[in-house]
What we know:
mainly beta; seven-stranded antiparallel sheet
Amino acid sequence: MIFDNIKNIETYETFSPFIERISLILTSIYNDSFNFDKPPMFEDGFKIIFINKEIEHDRTTYRLERHRQNIDFHFVVEGIDEIGIKKTDKCTLLNKPYNTDGDYELFDDEPEYKFKLMAGDFLLITPAHAHDTLLRKGSVKKFVFKIPIR
């Protein structure tokens, strides 16, 4: 898991060619050349999800999600996203067994940690951690980049 700000993304580009790709995509967003209505498609399993939500109240119940085939890279463009995290090996309240097609399993555990992502912040979440997002009231615009595990 990595929690940082986009101004430091070059530090992590050697970890994976996908991090460099994310850096280029985020540069296009800040240069107003990104097409939100039709994000690019990739054949190597890399995916982009854009989320624009108004959260009406702080959450008090949780549904932690774990992936096995992808690493999530959450990036906040505008607003605040609070993300709850718990180590997967400490999750005990299985809600839904692993779904291979959707690459997720769900837990009803409470998070151990909460990260408040402000505009420009990112959180990279590996399969070692289950997570729940959009935990606090307010509006948020964010991207989730799905990085395939090879």
